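Hi,

I'm pasting everything inline rather than attaching a file, because the server keeps stripping attachments. The sequence lines come first, and each chain or strand is labelled.
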Amino acid sequence: DVKVTQSSRYLVKRTGEKVFLECVQDMDHENMFWYRQDPGLGLRLIYFSYDVKMKEKGDIPEGYSVSREKKERFSLILESASTNQTSMYLCASSRSTAPYGYTFGSGTRLTVV
Amino acid sequence: AQSVSQHNHHVILSEAASLELGCNYSYGGTVNLFWYVQYPGQHLQLLLKYFSGDPLVKGIKGFEAEFIKSKFSFNLRKPSVQWSDTAEYFCAVIANQAGTALIFGKGTTLSVSS
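And the predicted assembly:
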């Protein structure tokens, strides 16, 4: 069963901490994505990557960075966590051409206190 | 860059009522369109998708959507809703070109009373 795995289901971190969210896919997909989901705002794209070591800013990249050293792994980094980064974070992967076949992870609910 | 607008934030219906959720996108080129559903406490699930061909797309659980290119719309419909359709519904679009990402609308919460 193909899947996207996010390393943590729930995380609680303190303000100012550096936070790593990890995502691994086993479908050999070229593209990987990080979204955050907030009530009333839907899913907003933070960063995506269409190849190893490549990254593109999404709609809300401020306060985040990413790393993609291997094709199957895409990490989201909060350099200095703040309370307004409390959210549900969703990782996804897809093929690079249609039909894209987006697959989503189960999400990480991050609370920054 | 593409964007997606969902007209209704919260829709309340009785069982057996008909449903139509509006979705408009902005992008001048070829797009692929999706509707996702998220039931309370669960993950996103794909309801249906449009890539090409027949603009009337049928998905799971009796849902369908119609792509109207001239109106940049992809509205979701269901003739008769059930209590179990209570969920949040997201429209999403991706430009059919390399290096782009799926962009979501803000979602519509559907509440169905029995």
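The longest strand of chain A covers residues 31-38.

If the labels don't parse on your end, tell me and I'll reformat.
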